[in-house]
């Protein structure tokens, strides 16, 4: 099946069995830079409204720069993966479920063994950055290191305000039409993300206390002009994970891989090269 936004890219699918936390899932995924067959794997975790298609060619270009093979996938509810049923609300701990249950199950389905996982890097953006942090905390012996780009560690007013504004744009402008190019069920994707972030109960969500369990190398990146979070997010990471390295990018908003790809790629490449 083809990705919604790119007719030249063909997705593969993995079937994940039902568990106590989720039903049977069909996950859209794609390998990039497949020529690097013996190289470490970089797993890319997309933002709250992201998908394989929304990454565009950044994972490919970064993997070529790093000499890695990349795994890109659309989380449940996004892209061409199993959509969220419209009457289902994401739970407050939905990102923990993604790190604890979904990603490990996907790696199992793709026969990514423990030896490969110990060489694996996670690279996550926004919600995907939070899932990256949680996976690193929950599975400290199953990865080589992690890169969290504009991650959320706790809920800030600026995040809620921007997400509320995005809802208004979705319902009153052509934003819905634009996003529909990247998701088979665009309302499933949008409202799954928007409803949980605007749920009053989610204001108490905070994973700072869990970060101390992260033992592997960690890079956290934030743009100074991010309208979804402040530097307090990655500063909190540094407080809880003393070995973490921070990069703060000028003239960069919430999406460094689009706003400042050169600076981001350089920072990631330099960081990972120091760990090898």
TrEMBL record:
Molecular-function GO terms, alphabetical: hydrolase activity
Protein name: Alpha/beta hydrolase
Keywords: Hydrolase
InterPro entries per the UniProt record, alphabetical: AB_hydrolase_1 (IPR000073), AB_hydrolase_fold (IPR029058), AB_hydrolase_sf (IPR050266)
Ranges where the AB hydrolase-1 domain occurs: 43-267
Pfam families: Abhydrolase_6
């Amino acid at each position: 099946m083809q990705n919604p936004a790119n007719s030249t890219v063909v997705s593969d699918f993995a079937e994940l069995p039902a568990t106590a936390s989720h039903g049977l899932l069909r996950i859209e995924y794609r390998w990039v830079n497949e020529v690097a067959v013996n190289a470490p794997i970089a797993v890319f975790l997309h933002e709250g409204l992201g998908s394989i298609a929304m990454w565009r060619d950044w994972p490919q270009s970064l993997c070529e720069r790093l000499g890695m093979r990349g795994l890109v996938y659309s989380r449940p509810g996004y892209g061409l993966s199993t959509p969220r049923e419209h009457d289902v609300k994401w739970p407050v701990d939905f990102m923990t479920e993604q790190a604890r249950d979904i990603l490990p199950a996907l790696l199992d389905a793709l026969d990514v063994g423990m030896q490969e996982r110990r060489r694996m890097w996670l690279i996550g953006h926004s919600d995907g950055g939070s899932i990256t942090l949680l996976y690193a905390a929950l599975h400290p012996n199953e990865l080589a290191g992690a890169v969290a780009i504009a991650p959320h560690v706790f809920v800030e007013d600026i995040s809620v305000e921007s997400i509320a504004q995005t809802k208004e744009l979705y319902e009153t402008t052509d934003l819905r039409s634009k996003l529909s190019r990247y998701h088979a069920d665009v309302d499933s994707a949008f409202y799954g993300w928007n409803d949980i972030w605007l749920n009053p109960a989610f204001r108490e969500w905070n994973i700072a206390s869990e970060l101390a369990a992260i033992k592997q190398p960690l890079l956290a990146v934030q743009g100074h002009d991010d309208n979804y979070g402040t530097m307090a997010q990655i500063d909190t990471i540094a407080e809880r994970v003393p070995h973490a390295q921070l990069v703060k990018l000028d003239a960069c908003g919430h999406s460094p891989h689009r706003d400042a790809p050169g600076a981001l790629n350089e920072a990631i490449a330099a960081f990972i090269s120091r760990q090898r």
